[in-house]
């Protein structure tokens, strides 16, 4: 089991900061940071949290740091359906509804779909039933041949974008389950070079679906909670999709998104 000093040093190296960089950011001495990392000084819970905040450590891992230092965890993890999260849940539901007629969904840190709005439904109509058994994973849904992959015109570009996103996520906070998903769905095959996401757009990279007899071009934005104190809220994100051209916008606003089926 790692000590709190060892864990803090790992996070500092991951963020590519020197002890002096971290000390300045946390308003402590570099000597104190060194003493904590080497185990010669036992930090208070407040000091652990101060250093963790400057290192942008996820709340789940801040609890781990506190436990390693001999303190109780500070951040609860409650289901999104819990009464304590009702205000946050209602806010998420309002965002999803307000985004209609365009698709939007909520994913957790492992890319499992937590909630969707009604515009997502038609895209799942021809997905294999086994991929829709909870928890429904967005990565598998998009890249599995039984999912949306056959209707993604630019599947290779989408895979490159997802590979880069998950790669950044793992670099920021390593996770065994997410690593397994990356290896299963995104890691380059033997002899294949990992290509960078395409850079041929002046604005953003789109996903192009062949859907309902036409091509729909969508780009996405990601919304997260700004100052969460609950692990669940810290780890969920709202993925909202927007039309990238007038034809795609018309498909949704004219009612096509409510009844369309992949073809």
UniProtKB/TrEMBL annotation:
UniProt domain HTH cro/C1-type: residue ranges: 8-62
Top-level taxon of origin: Bacteria
UniProt xrefs under SMART domains: HTH_XRE (SM00530)
UniProt GO molecular function: DNA binding
Matching PANTHER family: BLL4672 PROTEIN-RELATED, BLL5781 PROTEIN
Protein name, as recorded: Helix-turn-helix domain-containing protein
Species assigned in the record: Streptomyces mimosae
